[in-house]
Write a structure and sequence with these properties.
α9 (221-231) crosses α16, α12 crosses α13 and α16 packs antiparallel against α17 (398-414). The chain is of the alpha/beta class and 415 residues long. It has helices at 15-20, 48-61, 74-87, 98-106, 123-127, 151-157, 168-178, 194-203, 221-231, 250-256, 269-273, 309-321, 323-332, 346-349, 358-362, 377-392, 398-414; strands at residues 34-40, 65-71, 93-97, 130-131, 134-135, 138-150, 262-266, 280-283, 293-302, 367-368. The two termini are 30 Å apart. α2 (48-61) links the parallel β1 (34-40) and β2. Mean pLDDT is 92; it is low at 1-28.
Length: 415
C-alpha cells in the first residue's frame, strides 16, 4: 500500500557510525548449522502467520539454517533500523522500501548481490534496487496505481472503455461525456496531491527534479501541463474540495455507489471495493507523451557485515522468488510478489473482478520514479499539494504558482 516516505534525516547518520560498528556477526563463510536474523515490517499487521509459514518451509528445505524473525510496525521500523545500523547490531537480512533504499545503500552498509537471475523478477521493480550496475536488494512485493472504471456508466453513456493506448486527451473526452451533474455522477477522480503530480510530470515527458536531485525541474512546460491536468479536473469532471473531495474514503464511497466513472487509485482498493452492484474493470493509467505508473515496492537486503552471507542469500532468494512465497501471498491477499513467472501468478490473474488484472503487471513496464526529496520531504510534498489545491480552487494560476513553487522547493532541497 502507499506509504509515507521517511525523511532522509532518519537515515543520514547511518554512514560513518554504521561502517565502523560490528554487526551481530562479522564477514566469513558459513560452517555448520547457522542462525540468521531477519528484521521486517512487511508481515506486521496481519501477515505474521504467513511469514512464519514461509520461514518454516525454508527451514525444512534448508535444515542447516534457522531464521530468527524480528518484526516491527512500518511507522517504527526505520527509526529502529537507524539505531541498529549506528550500533552495528543490524540483522543479517532486513527489509527496505523504494523510498528509503537510496539513502541506506549510499551509507555503505549493504552487501552487493552477485549472480542474481534477473529473469526471475519484474525488471523495473528489480532495477529499483540497483546502483551503479550492482544489485543491492531483491524485491519482495509491490503495488501500483491503475485506472478503475465503471463499465455500466460507460455503457449507458455510449463511451468506449479505456485501452492501453489512451492518452490524457482520451480520458478528458470520456470524462466530459460521463459527467452527469444532475444525476450526481462524475466522470473522473484523481487526488490533487504531490504523489499524483510528480507522476503526471513524468507522464507529460518531464521530471520533478533535476538528474542530480539538487534542484526542481518542474517549472517547465511538462510541469505546468501536469498541474493543469490534475487541478483542472476539479469542478469540471471531478468533485471539488467543497464537495468533499479529499476527505477520508470520499472517492472509494463515490465509486462504490456507482457515482464515479473513472478513479485513479491503487490496486489495494481491489479487495476493498468488494462486490459492488455494477460491472467494473481496471486499465493502465493514460499518459500524455508517455506512460508512467506510480509503483510502491519493498525489498530485502543483506548486511555487508553479516557472518552468514551464504545463508542470508539463500533466505533472501527464497523469500522473494520461491513458489511457497508466491502461493502464500496470493492465498492471503498479501501484497503481490514481483516475480516474472506468470504461471505462478495464474490464481491471481484468473480471479475476477476485475477481469483485466494483467493491467496490474502491465503498469510495471513504465514506472514513475519517485523523487528523492531529502530531509525536507514532508515539507516539499505539503507545499506541492497546497499549491495544487490553490490552483484547483481558482485562487492561483499555474503560470504564477508553479514557478513560485519551484523556487520554494529549491530552497527546501538545499536546507
Amino acid at each position: 500500500m502507499k506509504k509515507t516516505l521517511i525523511a532522509a534525516s532518519a537515515v543520514a547518520v547511518l554512514g560513518a557510525a554504521a561502517l565502523t560498528g560490528c554487526s551481530s556477526s562479522s564477514p566469513g563463510a558459513d560452517a555448520g548449522p547457522v542462525t540468521i536474523t531477519y528484521s521486517n515490517f512487511i508481515s506486521n499487521g496481519g501477515n505474521e502467520k504467513n511469514l512464519k509459514a514461509i520461514v518454516a518451509a525454508f527451514e525444512k528445505e534448508n535444515p542447516g539454517i534457522t531464521v530468527n524473525v524480528q518484526t516491527a510496525a512500518y511507522a517504527d521500523y526505520f527509526t529502529k533500523l537507524q539505531t541498529d545500523l549506528a550500533a552495528g547490531t543490524q540483522a543479517d537480512v532486513f527489509d527496505v522500501d523504494a523510498g528509503n533504499f537510496a539513502n541506506i545503500q549510499a551509507s555503505g552498509v549493504l552487501a552487493p548481490l552477485t549472480g542474481v537471475d534477473a529473469s526471475t523478477y519484474r525488471t523495473s521493480v528489480l532495477d529499483t534496487y540497483k546502483v551503479g550496475g550492482s544489485q543491492y536488494g531483491l524485491p519482495t512485493s509491490f503495488s501500483d496505481v491503475v485506472l478503475f472504471y465503471n463499465k455500466d456508466l460507460f455503457d449507458a453513456a455510449g463511451v468506449s472503455y479505456p485501452t492501453a493506448k489512451w492518452t490524457w486527451a482520451d480520458e478528458k473526452a470520456a470524462a466530459e461525456k460521463l459527467t452527469k451533474r444532475d444525476a450526481g455522477v462524475w466522470g473522473d477522480y484523481q487526488p490533487v496531491t504531490y504523489h499524483e503530480y510528480y507522476k503526471a510530470v513524468q507522464q507529460a515527458g518531464g521530471s520533478f527534479l533535476s538528474d542530480g536531485n539538487s534542484s526542481a525541474a518542474f517549472a517547465s512546460p511538462a510541469g505546468r501541463k501536469a498541474a493543469d491536468w490534475i487541478s483542472g479536473k476539479s469542478g469540471s469532471v471531478m468533485p471539488t474540495a467543497a464537495d468533499g473531495a479529499g476527505t477520508a474514503d470520499f472517492d472509494k464511497n463515490l465509486f462504490a455507489q456507482g457515482k464515479l466513472a473513472m478513479w485513479h487509485t491503487g490496486i489495494w482498493m481491489i479487495s476493498l471495493v468488494g462486490n459492488v452492484p455494477f460491472n467494473w474493470d481496471i486499465a493502465v493509467e493514460p499518459g500524455d507523451t508517455q506512460k508512467a505508473s506510480a509503483t510502491f515496492s519493498n525489498a530485502v537486503v543483506i548486511s555487508k557485515d553479516s557472518k552468514h552471507q551464504d545463508a542470508a542469500r539463500k533466505w533472501a532468494d527464497f523469500l522473494t522468488s520461491s513458489k511457497t512465497m508466491v502461493d502464500t501471498r496470493l492465498a492471503a491477499g498479501w501484497e503481490l510478489p514481483a516475480i516474472a513467472d506468470e504461471s505462478l501468478l495464474k490464481p491471481y490473474l484468473e480471479k475476477t473482478p476485475p477481469a483485466n488484472r494483467r493491467a496490474v503487471f502491465d503498469a510495471l513496464e513504465h514506472i514513475a520514479v519517485a523523487p528523492q526529496l531529502g530531509t525536507n520531504a514532508k515539507q516539499i510534498q505539503d507545499a506541492v499539494t497546497n499549491t495544487l489545491g490553490e490552483i484547483a480552487a481558482g485562487r492561483a494560476s499555474t503560470g504564477d504558482a508553479i514557478p513560485a513553487l519551484s523556487t520554494q522547493v529549491d530552497t527546501l532541497l538545499k536546507k
